[in-house]
Amino acid sequence: MKKYLIVFLISMVPLIELRGAIPYAVGFGLPILPSLGVALLGNMLPVPFIFLFARKVLEWGKDKKYIGGFFSWCLEKGEKGGRKLEAKAGAGLYVALMLFVGIPVPGTGAWTGTLAASILDMDFKKSIIFILLGLLLAAVIMLLASLGVFGAINLVK
User: Fold this and answer.
1) CA separation (Å) from 96 to 9, 12, 20, 77, 99?
2) Residues near 51 by Cβ (< 8 Å), separated by ≥ 6?
3) Among 84, 87, 129, 143, which residue has the least CB neighbours within 10 Å?
């Protein structure tokens, strides 16, 4: 149970998310399906709060003495991600959001994608659905990569 809690908590951490939680679960030999479910749940839990409140909190804090730099950086990252999505997607904005969240490269993921969707004033329900689809894509990619890496390590032993 403790390792599942760790998977859950890792998947909630910005920039790490389920991209770090799934390799952890595979590396420690946890059953795949429950691990994926826990990682998806942990990664999705903050999404509605980020969508509804993060922009407001970041706008409020961007000019504060101690937190202003970090809050400004977060806003800039979300705005940059949102502009990229809009420029590349056109009418396929939600599919672009799904791919942005789903392709596991640094700086993408549910946190950044949700902030971008919020900044772009995208529809809440559609955004949540496409972010979840993106997380499912990322989970499959990370699972396959993790099984390959850890499988290769086991062959070397």
Assistant:
1) 27, 22, 22, 17, 5
2) 114, 117, 118, 124, 127, 128
3) 87
Contacts of residue 106, defined as CB under 8 A and 6 or more positions apart, other chains included, come to 15
- Alpha-carbon distance of 40 to 43, in angstroms, equals 5
Q: What is each CA distance from 95 to 45, 62, 80, 138, 154, in whole angstroms?
A: 21, 30, 18, 14, 37
pLDDT tens across 58-71, in order? 899 999 999 999 99
Taking Cα atoms as reference points, which of 75, 98, 96, 70 lies closest to residue 84?
96
Q: What is the pTM of this model?
A: 0.84
Tell me the per-residue pLDDT of 85-113, one tens digit each, with 9 for 90 and over: 788 777 789 999 999 999 988 888 999 89
What are the residues whose beta carbons fall under 8 Å from the beta carbon of 156, sequence distance 6 or more?
A: none
Residue 34 carries which side chain, given as an amino acid letter?
P
